[in-house]
Amino acid sequence: MDAAVTPVHKSKIKCERRTFLFVCCVTIGTLLMFAYYESITPSTRDKLHFKPQFNITGTDVMVFLHIQKTGGSTFGRHLVHDLNIECMKKNHTRVSNSHSCFRPNTMDPTWLFSRFSSGWKCGLHADWTSLKECVHTKVPSLPQGERKYHYFTILREPVARYLSEWKHVSRGATWKLSYILCNGAKRQLPICYSGWDWTNVTLEEFMDCTENPACNRQTWMLSDLRLVSCDGNGLSRDEMDSIMLQSAKENIMDMPFFGLTERQKDSKFLFEYTFDLKFKVDFIDHNQTYASAVRLDNVTMEGIKNRNKLDIELYKFAVELFDQRLEQAKMNMNQS
Ligand SMILES: *[C@@H]1O[C@H](CO)[C@@H](O)[C@H](O)[C@H]1NC(C)=O
Ligand SMILES: *[C@@H]1O[C@H](CO)[C@@H](O)[C@H](O)[C@H]1NC(C)=O
Ligand SMILES: *[C@@H]1O[C@H](CO)[C@@H](O)[C@H](O)[C@H]1NC(C)=O
Ligand SMILES: *[C@@H]1O[C@H](CO)[C@@H](O)[C@H](O)[C@H]1NC(C)=O
Ligand SMILES: *[C@@H]1O[C@H](CO)[C@@H](O)[C@H](O)[C@H]1NC(C)=O
């Protein structure tokens, strides 16, 4: 008997068609996902191909977004001590680190907005949103036109940064004066302790505070919080997280420069390349920090990673972007 089209065959053909459709759908889906993913990867979106001109002799301003425990103070001191720029201590009678650094051949210090030059004029360790809403109100306005602001920051491996913040808080740091300026309103940050400070806090207690601003600090401090109504009102946790992470990625892509704590020498090179300035000293790659001396069991380590998921993803993205920019900068240097 000719077994041409038995029910079994039919169902097999049907099945093959289904498989074909399924494969098609998966392929198209994958392509769409890839296209979307591509749209937010560093390679296609980064603007490193044009090097934004920082005009120090004009009216441009460099804004240092200093996130806690990323080595920002060290970098900030380099900015006022070690650049090929003329600086002057602000008050000789006072034990202070504040310096005025001037645009070449002027007494105009407005080019640098940072802790050791302008001070914390927009709040202690001001985040991206606060700076965007505040910096232009603290820098003398121009008779005509807008100033060009060049933001930059330094990112650090998130587990080490979180541990370092815990250590710092347990030694008595509070950052009580920190606030977020968002849509014109000042918001206090959540405080995890009662009493004056959180001296001697254990890592367990530090981790138990779910509202701890140390969690994913780099992501929330680098994102535009106006996109989540400043406090996430009306959004689920997941929605808020993904909007903040996406925004933080975009904001670091928009920064002409950002550094990595673990890559001091490379960060120095990229800063110099981007802004056409030179440091008079070498930077040192530290590989021993307080954080690296902390020994953790697996459960604690997983707990910390869970509390810093966004930062871990942001940092991964940042390292990739940093490497691309570094490679590009070295290529451009060799060509010129
Ligand atoms: C920088 O700004 C100064 C003063 O506005 C201007 O004269 C100069 O042409 C600018 N330089 C560049 C490279 O744009
Ligand atoms: C410099 O610091 C001293 C001591 O803190 C203070 O008395 C003085 O007013 C300060 N001078 C200026 C110009 O700020
Ligand atoms: C913190 O711990 C140290 C060492 O155990 C102790 O000397 C100090 O009194 C503690 N401080 C507070 C505020 O509990
Ligand atoms: C620390 O960094 C130095 C300089 O980059 C390197 O030579 C050394 O091997 C590093 N040490 C460790 C333990 O990673
Ligand atoms: C901790 O994690 C390491 C690496 O993942 C694993 O080899 C080790 O067995 C774990 N230890 C415990 C106590 O779970």
UniProtKB/TrEMBL annotation:
Keywords: Glycoprotein, Membrane, Signal-anchor, Transferase, Transmembrane, Transmembrane helix. It catalyses: alpha-D-glucosaminyl-[heparan sulfate](n) + 3'-phosphoadenylyl sulfate = 6-sulfo-alpha-D-glucosaminyl-[heparan sulfate](n) + adenosine 3',5'-bisphosphate + H(+). This is Heparan-sulfate 6-O-sulfotransferase. Its EC number is 2.8.2.-. The chain crosses the membrane at residues 20-37. It is a single-pass membrane protein; Single-pass type II membrane protein. The gene is Hs6st3. It is found in: Membrane. InterPro entries: Heparan_SO4-6-sulfoTrfase, P-loop_NTPase, Sulfotransferase. GO terms for molecular function: heparan sulfate 6-sulfotransferase activity. It comes from the Eukaryota. The lineage of its organism: Eukaryota, Metazoa, Chordata, Tunicata, Ascidiacea. 6-O-sulfation enzyme which catalyzes the transfer of sulfate from 3'-phosphoadenosine 5'-phosphosulfate (PAPS) to position 6 of the N-sulfoglucosamine residue (GlcNS) of heparan sulfate.
